[in-house]
Amino acid sequence: MKLKKKESFIYAIIASFIFLVMAAALYFFLNDSSTFTLKETATQPGAGTIISYKKGTELYYDKEKTCEGRCTSNVTLSAMPLYLESSNSIVLPKDMIYVNARSKQYFRANHFSVFASQQEGIFNDNKIVSDLGFLYDGESTYIFLEKTQITINGEQKQLDAFSSIYVNMNSKAFVLYESKTKKITTNKIITDTLEATCADYKIDLKNGVLINQDKNILLYNNVDDLDEMK
What we know:
Layout: H1 2-32, E1 33-37, E2 42-45, E3 50-53, E4 58-62, E5 66-68, E6 82-84, E7 89-91, E8 96-100, E9 105-109, E10 114-118, E11 121-124, E12 127-128, E13 134-136, E14 141-144, E15 148-152, E16 155-159, E17 164-168, E18 173-178, E19 183-188, E20 194-197, E21 202-204, E22 209-212, E23 215-218
Antiparallel strand pairs: 1-4, 2-3, 4-5, 6-7, 7-10, 8-9, 8-13, 10-11, 11-12, 13-14, 14-17, 15-16, 15-20, 17-18, 18-19, 20-21, 21-22, 22-23
């Protein structure tokens, strides 16, 4: 009888341990990943093409990648935004750095954050972004939250808010999406100057440098260390 009681006690300890391990695994899974369901059709710029997603598409995020459904295929989303055309909004597929270029402050814009353009201004999850600025993935993707002039290969273009660009310095190429015209341009970088200019700051897009009041500031690129954008 004592032996059976001892065995029951051991089994209870083992069962409790397994439960705790499973609970911890579930906790870390839920906190390191999330899903987002598109409430309307969306598009994402790619290399010379526009990728479309139907209403009801479920997107899945973890620290390694963002993909459609439960990542059953090898297709992953880039850091370029998802454009929700009917609501004039964008969704971020990944965590990005919000750069307040005027005050030189950085915050984390979480994956699946929604930025909307309304008559009163740009809103992030229903809170106005008063100082505008831009979003940066810490590597090669920029999303402009205000009207911007961009200089590429000696040509100047006027961009509206939510225009975006991917810059690949390894292959010396870029993908530019113009939000107003929905035009996508993919080309090689053939000049030294690749920059975005606003009224009181510039961004050196080739080197990830913010130029503010004649000071060159290397953009911070570790999104995980930043406080959440509020």
